[in-house]
Amino acid sequence: xxxxxxxxxxxxxxxxxxxxxxxxxxxxxxxxxxxxxxxxxxxxxxxxxxxxxxxxxxxxxxxxxxxxxxxxxxxxxxxxxxxxxxxxxxxxxxxxxxxxxxxxxxxxxxxxxxxxxxxxxxxxxxxxxxxxxxxxxxxxxxxxxxxxxxxxxxxxxxxxxxxxxxxxxxxxxxxxxxxxxxxxxxxxxxxxxxxxxxxxxxxxxxxxxxxxxxxxxxxxxxxxxxxxxxxxxxxxxxxxxxxxxxxxxxxxxxxxxxxxxxxxxxxxxxxxxxxxxxxxxxxxxxxxxxxxxxxxxxxxxxxxxxxxxxxxxxxxxxxxxxxxxxxxxxxxxxxxxxxxxxxxxxxxxxxxxxxxxxxxxxxxxxx
Length: 367
Description:
Layout: E1 3-11, H1 13-26, E2 31-38, H2 42-56, E3 65-69, H3 74-80, H4 82-85, E4 90-94, H5 111-123, E5 126-129, H6 132-140, H7 142-145, H8 158-163, E6 167-169, E7 194-199, H9 208-220, E8 225-230, H10 240-247, E9 253-256, H11 262-270, E10 274-276, H12 286-293, E11 297-301, H13 306-309, E12 315-316, H14 319-331, H15 334-337, H16 352-362
Helix pairs in contact: 1-16, 2-3, 3-5, 9-10, 9-14
């Protein structure tokens, strides 16, 4: 049986979901050897995990493939472990890319993280992205990224010529519920009030300010809603979360905070009407697709990955358009509870069952 080494320096969220998916689905056909580190201190994982894994991977073993996320500096690890450089199939999976991570000013961008990812892509035999947007934004920014470098930059187009031929897109494998919306009644605690879910990380790149400003505007004009603010909160939580929570009445809040239980998470999504994103940084959108599969009407900005995964009627161009859309749903929640939009989402593209054999081939399982 072929042995595949899986390395994940940041094993949490979607990174952990992917590792768990591979182990669960292919352990009967491949010998999988996962090595991971907890999802803490992302910046330090990106800087130093190559040295850690160079020491942690057993020596004297022969692997048919190596699969890692782009958090790992694969070039460094292969330099430290020439035996791993000789693995015939080295695959890197990009959950995101640092070349177009939003920063206020160009000088604020930490060059090293994007540079590490470029070196990793050059070292890998296959470079897999979770969306067309992720792949195209990475390739498109290769030359621009090096404008920070004062001189002796790579020749224009030279990196694209090496990386593009081995780049491909495989959507992230999701467990989707394909669940019709729960029947709402006047005694379900909502009283027919629109229920809005916001299931994202509590960080600035998810742009919570725009979302909360929209809801406060609705509230100030007398429109009723109940909101579920989900997602994980990390060490540096933006203060807007506490400020917004203090501005809400108890009856406005459906839930506040991360849900440890996945069953509870699905249950809450299935009783919500709308799921909203205001992100300025999104390469796939796991939580939005999960919520859509649970019966929520997705509302997302017309940017980033969202035009790739949602039809035009689910997209808005400005915060004012988001406000108008939510206002119309508040006036008539049944507009968000219809099933027509769910038939147009084509969620089967992201189903873990439909992607299974594709991932098996990526791991080198197919002859």
